[in-house]
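Training component of the fellowship. As part of building independent skills, the fellow (R.M.) carried out the full modelling exercise for a liganded target. The chosen ligand was zinc ion. The inputs are recorded below so that the supervisory panel can assess the work.
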Amino acid sequence: MSGLLSVFFHLLLLFKLVAPVTFRHHRYDDLVRTLYKVHNECPYITRVYSIGRSVKGRHLYVLEFSDYPGIHEPLEPEVKYVGNMHGNEVLGRELLLQLAEFLCEEFRNGNQRIVRLVEGTRVHIMPSMNPDGYEVAAAQGADISGYLVGRNNANGVDLNRNFPDLNTYVYYNEKHGGPNHHLPLPDNWKSQVEPETEAVIHWIRSFNFVLSANLHGGAVVANYPYDKSLEHRVRGVRRTANTPTPDDKLFQKLAKVYSYAHGWMHQGWNCGDYFPDGITNGASWYSLSKGMQDFNYLHTNCFEITLELSCDKFPRQEELQREWLGNREALIQFLEQVHQGIKGMVLDENYNNLAEAVISVSGINHDVTSGDHGDYFRLLLPGTYTVTATAPGFDPETVTVTVGPGEPKLVTLCRQLGLPPDGTLPPPGAPYARQSCFPLTLTKEPATPRYSAGHSWLL
Ligand SMILES: [Zn+2]
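Fellow's submitted model of the complex:
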């Protein structure tokens, strides 16, 4: 009897080992089911939420991974992946669903690398920004799908040409002086954008995202800002010209991390094109205006690159497993890049958090700001930097910091009040006089008891 049982269990185990992982295309209902399935399998480290609806009323779902879902933990960076913005470019959508299943499964298996990632990072995964376009493309099927069928949203608009154009302002500022960061939205921006774009803009303004990738198809290359060339049109002719950001070296590194961890992107020759190292400045390839990655960089603290992942925009189902294996390591390594550079707290002399303090790095004309919790994140390559924090009504604070290739550098910038709020000079020794400021000991305590919160459903 026990022999029979043993055979039975071995057969069961064998079946489990050889049972094929299902790689398939997911229509909208299937996508929603898969997100909730992952959430049900990993309820303590995930949350499903929607940032809004498409033109046809489909939800723009996000699956969040964190050890405290729904909560921003100070000093834990927020990172995002967005797929399927062009409805007919479907590989990113499928890879992000695979990634969600992978993170959940490996966390449950105790994979230390994934446990560390989930415990130290808040990861937001949006498999589809254009669910309406996807349905149009999927109805055609992989083999007969036209090159552009389903690319746009249901109003026929290309969502990656639909963000407010902030490049025009920044290129003007470069010539005439003015900021390169946190450029304001135009007054009438809502009337100029599609529902999907508006939802994404609200989303990226409501989280302090640090790093992001936007997944596309039709080529195999990691593309970094700017997408819009400095001289976008000269006498009606589109110009392409390498148009680097002040963070060009960092963006090249981020793009290379993906291309070199990818199975074949770094080889350069793909889909009949050649890109050295498998990366390219967006504008030097072809200039596009009102794209999402430039908007992220110019309006928020978020550094976004665009990943072109497959020659075939709608690969056949049989290709999906190979694509997943080619991208899996790259998708994880890119997320890990958010822990590079410096981060810290900006505090006043009473250790209150200071939001929207400006963090400047000398030699790089692109500032970031602290988030609602007073924490800031500045991605930087290894090197020594002079970093200054400023906030209205406070004395600037400058520190010199060396960033190594490994762990993030923690810099706590204490703000000191120079003047009382009414602007009068304080008497010597008064609370508002300058005082020495001690760096905080940064032991993080959970805002709420473990696993008891964060399962709110925003639909
Ligand atoms: Zn695309």
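The panel noted the following from the submitted structure. The longest helix spans residues 91-108. The chain is about 30% helix and 20% strand.
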